[in-house]
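Before relying on records like the one below, remember that each one covers exactly one chain. Contacts with other chains, cofactors or solvent are not represented anywhere in the record.
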Amino acid sequence: MHLQGAKFEMNYPDIDPVAIAIGPLQVHWYGLMHVVGFAAAWWLGRLGYVMIAAGAALILWSRRQARDVPAAAAPAQGVG
């Protein structure tokens, strides 16, 4: 197969970066993903603590460690 002089084009979807706009307030998709990531970290931290409180020995987190999961996830989201 000879490709000399061939042009390849990729079609990118035209997605608006603004998810919700109410007047001058604009919420972007990446901002929503940060909120979802933070909520998932908080939920997983609470889930680990609840499993310990219920007597399941699957995750060995203390109450303090469960509280620290969202605090550790926030800077990681900023870097990512």
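The beta strands are 18-22, 25-28.
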